[in-house]
């Protein structure tokens, strides 16, 4: 799952970077770092870091506004000092240059990334539980019962006689009583995983949300460009007027990208994650009774005598 998440994130990041390189070249180089930070924050959020989607997205747009303002809206600005850049960053939320697009992006990503984050944390918890029960300590009584079941017949020279099924089950159930107590919680855990994987495939589709990031950013930039004169007037009042070159440079080389054909890479990543979801939940459903049936699993096979009337019952051959 983590590999599939990373694959989708890399694709979405590359797609977003290519938007700047093809449609907004004047700011492509400077926009690379904010784009990288945005997807790093998204990745950390999915992995369970103490951060929020809202803070990641708004920080990205805070960093983007000075670039859009100085490279697209007012491409004649020559002196973009640190103080002026910081002023633009700080006034971004008040000026609201990107309209509702920035908030919409927060809403869409929050819904889809939440399910992915919960699934990631749930899988980590599941691994922890399995690793813990894999090394469950045996009591002295259990150890004695296991020795009696498997090796006491050897003292009578009965090396080929194996335990009876019923006897094996009694011993194993006694040894694994504490493990079998996990049954109810494990069943509930499987149901939770099923719910989360269904959520990821339904209204909280991670693939669609990540694939739409570039489009949301493009619409946000277009909105800012369309409202350029009003933004400039407001910014001039708050941050002052920066230095301009003689004759404002044209931003005619900025070509808004309205539609991009669906890339095969994304389709493959999407199919990969969808298949993993289906295979995973199908497998996990089969393990729903795992902790309740560990004894039965251990007493099934070469450990016990199934096809013979002769077996060891703990005291004698019967």
UniProtKB/TrEMBL annotation:
Primary location group: membrane
Protein localization: Cell membrane
UniProt keyword list: Cell membrane, Glycoprotein, GPI-anchor, Heparan sulfate, Lipoprotein, Membrane, Proteoglycan, Signal
Any one of the GO BP annotations: cell migration
GO CC annotation terms, alphabetical: cell surface; extracellular region; plasma membrane; side of membrane
Membrane topology reported for the UniProt record: Lipid-anchor; GPI-anchor
InterPro entries in alphabetical order: Glypican, Glypican_CS
Pfam families: Glypican
Function field: Cell surface proteoglycan.
Family named by the database record: Belongs to the glypican family.
Protein name from the UniProt record: GPC5 protein
């Amino acid at each position: 799952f983590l590999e599939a998440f990373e694959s989708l994130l890399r694709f979405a990041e590359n797609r977003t970077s290519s938007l700047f390189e093809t449609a907004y070249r004047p700011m492509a180089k400077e926009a690379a770092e904010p784009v990288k930070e945005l997807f790093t924050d998204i990745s950390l959020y999915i992995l369970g870091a103490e951060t929020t989607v809202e803070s990641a997205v708004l920080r990205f747009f805070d960093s983007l506004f000075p670039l859009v303002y100085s490279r697209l809206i007012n491409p004649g600005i020559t002196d973009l000092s640190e103080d002026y850049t910081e002023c633009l960053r700080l006034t971004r939320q008040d000026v609201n240059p990107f309209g509702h697009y920035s908030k919409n992006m927060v809403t869409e990503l929050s819904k889809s990334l939440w399910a992915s984050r919960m699934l990631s944390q749930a899988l980590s918890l599941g691994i922890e539980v399995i690793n813990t029960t894999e090394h469950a300590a045996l009591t002295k009584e259990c150890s004695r019962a296991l020795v009696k079941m498997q090796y006491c017949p050897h003292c009578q020279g009965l090396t080929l006689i194996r335990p009876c099924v019923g006897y094996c089950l009694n011993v194993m159930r006694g040894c694994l009583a504490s493990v079998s107590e996990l049954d109810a919680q494990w069943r509930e855990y499987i149901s939770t995983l099923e719910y989360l994987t269904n959520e990821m495939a339904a209204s909280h589709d991670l693939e669609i949300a990540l694939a739409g990031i570039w489009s949301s950013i493009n619409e946000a930039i277009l909105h800012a460009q369309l409202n350029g004169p009003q933004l400039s007037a407001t910014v001039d009042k708050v941050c002052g007027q920066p230095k301009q070159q003689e004759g404002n440079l044209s931003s005619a080389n900025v070509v808004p990208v309205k539609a991009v054909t669906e890339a095969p890479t994304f389709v493959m990543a999407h199919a990969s994650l969808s298949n993993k979801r289906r295979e995973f939940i199908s497998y996990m459903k089969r393990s729903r009774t795992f902790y309740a049936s560990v004894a039965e699993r251990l007493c099934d096979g070469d450990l016990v005598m199934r096809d013979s009337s002769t077996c060891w019952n703990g005291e004698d051959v019967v």
